[in-house]
Amino acid sequence: xxxxxxxxxxxxxxxxxxxxxxxxxxxxxxxxxxxxxxxxxxxxxxxxxxxxxxxxxxxxxxxxxxxxxxxxxxxxxxxxxxxxxxxxxxxxxxxxxxxxxxxxxxxxxxxxxxxxxxxxxxxxxxxxxxxxxxxxxxxxxxxxxxxxxxxxxxxxxxxxxxxxxxxxxxxxxxxxxxxxxxxxxxxxxxxxxxxxxxxxxxxxxxxxxxxxxxxxxxxxxxxxxxxxxxxxxxxxxxxxxxxxxxxxxxxxxxxxxxxxxxxxxxxxxxxxxxxxxxxxxxxxxxxxxxxxxxxxxxxxxxxxxxxxxxxxxxxxxxxxxxxxxxxxxxxxxxxxxxxxxxxxxxxxxxxxxxxxxxxxxxxxxxxxxxxxxxxxxxxxxxxxxxxxxxxxxxxxxxxxxxxxxxxxxxxxxxxxxxxxxxxxxxxxxxxxxxxxxxxxxxxxxxxxxxxxxxxxxxxxxxxxxxxxxxxxxxxxxxxxxxxxxxxxxxxxxxxxxxxxxxxxxxxxxxxxxxxxxxxxxxxxxxxxxxxxxxxxxxxxxxxxxxxxxxxxxxxxxxxxxxxxxxxxxxxxxxxxxxxxxxxx
Length: 584
Hints:
Radius of gyration: 27 Å
Strand content: 5-15%
Oligomer: single chain
């Protein structure tokens, strides 16, 4: 059970299943809690496995449904239609599960193993990769495998992991570190949290492999305190690995020592940047510093330090076990392997998806995500979070990888993918993201601290209907200057949502400043609420909720809104049951 399932009531479902099985005397049926399988849209979910039968997958399983499933599926041998999602359920990592178009490497164990039981992980070849490198490989061989695999950083930068490890390994220092960046701060992104909640040992194993390859004996997981379940499971996993001798001194009798400790962060977006993260680990303010020197040369405590994000590390054990060629055979020419996306927003099946690099947005949104909510039109998708940009309908068939996203003005980022439909105003969306980065700016450099604030103020004026045409030129000029002059990558990419929406939705910006009109009605300052007098029945529901008493009866029974008094709060629109009030 992960955070999404627990929030939807998975603990009650789990207890109801155990209670129903006990009532039927089925003590031989095991109920095992596992991590998120990615179907967040239909949580709580359960998978029923009976030897000799096809696996069955149920969704939206509340306490009542749990009892019905036990009575029918286990008791009478019949599969109840209620809550049934799929019979013959195939995990997405199995070849042939083309319907889902997924391939799971980083998420390979999420939904299969009990994250609090190390034996479950070991049963799925857990710690076999670590044993293999310690017994059969020297550090240089491990570096070559990771380089040859083509694995690139999944946190957003896309730097080749093998070369980052090599840069640390080249340093002559005796004291080195490997840090796992689990400070996931992008709005809408939760892939790292799900990996840590569902398969924490895969990250621990990868850190030990990375430590062996680079010469580090100490690992640190920097995780935001907002992830209590992931923290709890990491603590359990570290303790279990220590108890079995898989962490600590003389691992597998090889003479290699490696320990891991946790450091909790306060949840600052800027701490996703590696130099700011290192300063936070050191107990200092989480502010970035100019590079070089890079952390591989001078990082934590000024010692050589490798910083990798959670998803990057989760790929490593599979690469060691299956070989560099296997991993390099997946994906595109310059982007190997798979990528986990948090698919959220106006899409029918929200959740986590892991697809080979090169999969198109159309396949992700329509084939896996089930299309747009309420049959509305697709408008755009934001990738890369606040550092990324929007992708429009004309790019739906673009194969997604690091380079193709940059070419169309966005970026991979950590993997947040927010789908928007025809009701979303792109100017308002840009304002939202800029507001986020402006609030999260550490304030160290002027372009980010002041520049994003000025950009936000201009956007705020535009969305209030007070913008001027020349404001558009100011936005572009300011955005491009910030990209060139900000200190760190987060500041340099902060204007991206504004610049990309201006590139693809220029007409929408122009209507805001010339006609003072928001076509979707999203910009509160430009809304006008009107009453269709021929539809109004005079129920007075709108009159009762209006906080400024601006709705008056004009001709019985119809009402009218006094626009000079209206504060555009929308309370009248929300309570009208007769579609007599419209937003213009």
